[in-house]
Design brief:
The complex is a heterodimer of chains A (167) and B (343).
Chain A (H helix, E strand, L loop, with lengths): L4 H19 L5 E5 L2 H13 L6 E3 L8 H4 L18 E9 L3 H11 L6 E10 L10 E6 L5 E6 L5 E6 L3
Parallel strand pairs in A: 1-2, 1-3, 3-4, 4-5
Antiparallel strand pairs in A: 6-7
Helix pairs in contact in A: 1-2
Chain B lengths: L5 H10 L7 H4 L17 H14 L17 E6 L5 H12 L3 E6 L11 H10 L4 E6 L4 H8 L5 E7 L5 H15 L6 E5 L6 H12 L4 E5 L15 E3 L2 H5 L4 E4 L5 H4 L6 H8 L3 H4 L7 E3 L12 H4 L6 H28 L1
Parallel strand pairs in B: 1-2, 1-3, 3-4, 5-6, 5-8, 6-7, 8-9
Helix pairs in contact in B: 3-7, 3-14, 4-14, 7-8, 7-14
Classes of the chains: A alpha/beta (167), B alpha/beta (343).
């Protein structure tokens, strides 16, 4: 299936704006999970007109699979260019699947401080959750067959790739 | 095994057949770091990977919560057969910032004094289910020997062995240089002082050669420069002014006081006059040169306070970066252990 990802993000930004208004949140801070989440968060930031730079999380040191696969070979570290204490955060990822990445991201955020609230915004939500984590704003729901994997490619033009692996 | 004091056991091994090259035991069959004994023989890609990982760990120290959960539940034992403050405390902090549990054993002051053999000490630490030993010992080859002796689920990091190597110091110096000078392949670097007795110098030379530094110099009196050192790809200078001319990096080495007593040098005063790094002499180096020292500093012997505390000094940054580099090495080694176990 083809998605107009820029249109999805536009709609997400509108939904997010409404939610933030209803919750009385005037000054949220955006945090994207590397790599795909950062691309989506950058676009949301432009739509929301936020002047503050984006936080970027690399959750490699917080993953729960170190005991199986060791250290992940990515290079960019996490950067949170604002004080997390007392802030209303919008955590952004590209695809919500097992929920383990979001669990790791929240653990990392709490090592920087105590946010007042965290909203989860994802471009795609696919089934297969292993943890009790749900997103507040979702661009689209994906229905994938077992053995199918989704990956967002970017950053200049975002598109969704579906890969099939033999189980 | 007979109850020999640790030093005797080791000296026998080192004087005997044991090869000093550790390359064969440091990497597993996938090329992953299994122990970290020496920089000699390691591929450039692996050294770069250590530096890149250290770059990722460095920001952890700037946070309020200076800790990541990567090595939660792992146990690291610091086995120091020789006194150390900086190396032991930064290994200690590195392990703790990775959420590992740390045992600090000052072995010189404990079991070996009671006549326990090194092998027995190691067996006991294995029985305590440690995952990693950080070893400092006055005998060259000690960490290599211990890596060969320990159970296969234990990894060994060399925290300095005799005159052989101090590989994490070599890597933290490389990290400091890369932070300031980026590209190794354009640099002129001088290592000044007691090269003959310095494991730091040896690890620095190995690391910087592997990373591609084209102009690497050692500077010092002939009595403190090993005769065959040019075989390591360095240029020897016995004149400090010539040796540091146009250099981008000047690494000064600690002059051990006992060298003066052993007639290798006339006096600290005279050494300072010939080889002490002063602000005047630093003007011969490149204008943006950095000054490094592995610590602890002998002010007024190998370096003048005005230089050690001056704008070009990165000596305290070396200490800070040492934590990130040691975190990287520990995480890589315990990560490859985990992968090998899962495979």
């Amino acid at each position: 299936m083809q998605y107009d990802i820029e249109a999805l993000i536009h709609t997400m930004a509108e939904q997010l704006q409404t939610r933030l208004g209803a919750a009385g949140i005037g000054s949220p801070a955006l945090v994207g999970i590397r790599t795909g989440g950062v691309w989506v968060a950058e676009r949301l930031r432009a739509h929301l007109g936020l002047a503050e730079p984006l936080g970027e999380l690399n959750i490699a040191f917080y993953r729960d699979d170190f005991s199986r696969i060791g250290i992940h070979p990515t290079v960019e570290p996490s950067v949170l260019p604002f004080d997390v204490d007392g802030r209303d955060l919008i955590l952004v990822d590209d695809i919500l699947y097992t929920g383990r990445t979001v669990r790791a991201a929240m653990n990392e955020i709490f090592d920087y401080g105590r946010p007042r609230s965290i909203q989860l915004v994802v471009l795609f939500d696919r089934s297969g959750r292993e943890l009790p984590i749900e997103a507040q704003v979702v661009g689209a729901h994906l229905s994938l067959q077992p053995g199918e994997h989704a990956k967002l490619t970017g950053p200049s033009s975002l598109s969704l790739e579906i890969h099939r692996t033999r189980a | 095994m007979a109850k020999l004091p640790a030093n005797e056991v080791l000296k026998e091994c080192v004087d005997g057949e044991m090869a000093m090259s550790a390359a064969d035991i440091q990497l597993d069959d996938q090329g992953r770091l299994r122990h970290f004994i020496a920089i000699e023989g390691l591929p450039r890609a692996l050294l770069t990977q250590i530096l890149d990982n250290a770059e990722r760990f460095a920001p952890v120290g700037d946070r309020t919560v200076k800790k990541v959960p990567l090595l939660r539940g792992r146990t690291v034992a610091n086995l120091f057969f020789e006194p150390s403050t900086r190396t032991r405390t930064t290994f200690d902090l590195a392990a703790k910032r990775l959420s590992a549990d740390v045992l600090n054993l000052n072995i010189e002051a404990s079991s070996t004094k009671k006549g326990e053999s090194l092998a027995d000490t190691l067996r006991n630490l294995e029985a305590m289910q440690c995952d990693m030993f950080v070893v400092r010992h006055q005998v060259s080859g000690a960490a290599h020997f211990i890596a060969q002796q320990v159970a296969p689920y234990i990894s060994v990091i060399n925290g300095g062995d005799g005159r052989h190597e101090h590989p994490t110091q070599g890597m933290l110096d490389a990290f400091t240089i890369r932070r300031h000078k980026q590209d190794f392949t354009r640099l002129k670097i001088a290592i000044v002082g007691d090269v003959a007795h310095s494991r730091v110098a040896r690890s620095n030379i190995q690391a910087l050669k592997i990373l591609g530094v084209p102009d690497l110099r050692v500077v010092g009196p002939k009595t403190l420069i090993p005769p065959a050192i040019d075989a390591m790809g360095v240029t020897v200078y016995d004149d400090l002014d010539e040796g540091i001319r146009d250099c981008d990096v000047v690494i000064t080495l600690r002059l051990q006081q006992e060298r003066m007593q052993s007639a290798l040098l006339p006096s600290a005063h005279e050494y300072f006059r010939e080889y002490g790094l002063t602000a005047d002499r630093m003007r011969l180096a490149a204008p943006d040169a950095i000054v490094m020292h592995p610590g602890p500093i002998n002010r007024g012997v190998e370096i003048d306070s005005a230089v050690a505390d001056g704008a070009q000094s990165v000596i305290l940054q070396q200490v800070t970066y040492g934590i990130a580099v040691r975190m990287a090495v520990m995480a890589m080694i315990l990560g490859s252990q985990a992968q090998a176990g899962a495979a």
